[in-house]
# Entry
Amino acid sequence: MPAGRTTPPHPEKPRSGPSRRLLITVVIALPLVVLLLIGYLPRRERLRALVSASEKEEHSLQVVNTARIRHGTSASELVLPGNIQAITDAPIYARADGYVLKRYVDIGDRVAAGKVLAEIEVPDLDQQVHQVRANVLQARAALAQAEANLVRAKSSEHLAQVTVDRWKVLVARGVLAKQDGDQKEADYEVAVANRKAQEASVSAAQGSISAAEANLGRLLDLQGFEKITAPFAGLITARNFDVGALVASGGVSGHELFHMAQIGVVRIFVDVPQSYAPVIRTGLAAVVTVQQLPARSFSGKVARTSQSLDPNTRTLLTEVDVPNQASLLLPGMYARVSLRTVSAEPPLLVPGDALVTRANGTRVAVVAEDGSVHFQKVSVGRDHGTETEVLSGLEGGELVIINPTDDVREGARVKPAAGRE
# Structure
């Protein structure tokens, strides 16, 4: 190349580096981003609206206390009140009118059967006994005389019969007149009648003796009532007279002298509700407690039941007998009787506060899995205080509302709180 001549520069080639690739990427991505924004933003807003509505609905649901329906145990304890009574209790009256001569016992004394408790002086009765005894002797003497007359009458009858037989032979032979024979036959008939009359007299005399002896026996029995005796072994719980008092016989117009009780075994009558009546049977074990002896319990058994319910109270009258050899249980005490019953099938138990009583029956508010409420009609049985047995309407495991308010209606949705399981 000649000196002094410059060579013209070469033209630069276009650059195809990172800037161009970025531009191409932006051009391609921009429409995609626009499309994404167009589809995502409305979806996100809808989702946010749904979540907001769900949260709002959740916060607006009424929160309720619930409990789970469960099966109880087959054995249950029934506690009933009752009054302790003596196994045998009897008032004692006088059977004879008179004045109290002696008194041998007082309140609180223990007596054996047949022991003399008091003596009554009855002078009139004693005189009647003497008189009737004399009447008995007189009747026996009259019987002896009637028996002697009967022997004489039989002898006269026999003699008259022999005489008649002889005279019949003589009259038939013509030795004696027929008139004389007829007279002897008449004498024989008179002797027969006399003998029968004497037999009747003997019977009457025997009857008189029997009547006199019966009257004497009655008076002797009444005389025996001058001594008042204990009809059974027991405790004197009342004495209502003093020595020298005038007493009258009989339990209606007379005055009660003593009152006796036998407390070696005591009885307690309790009224069992109708729901428990089918499981109460003779021999069922019972435990008796009294407030005065808090550390002691007494074992007893069901002795008998009335086998019928009182139509007014719908209860079964039941007698529980309790051995009381130490005499710690006294008649008149208030007692608590615990009966342990066993049912064939464990019952369903529902909280008592969950029951809703309406005109159309008893119902419970059951909460479904989706939180909706359904009022289920149930049939209830025994009341255990805080819980009640359900006989029908539930199967077990249901979630029920405790103390449902007026806002809890059929089909409403609620939010169960942590309840009892």
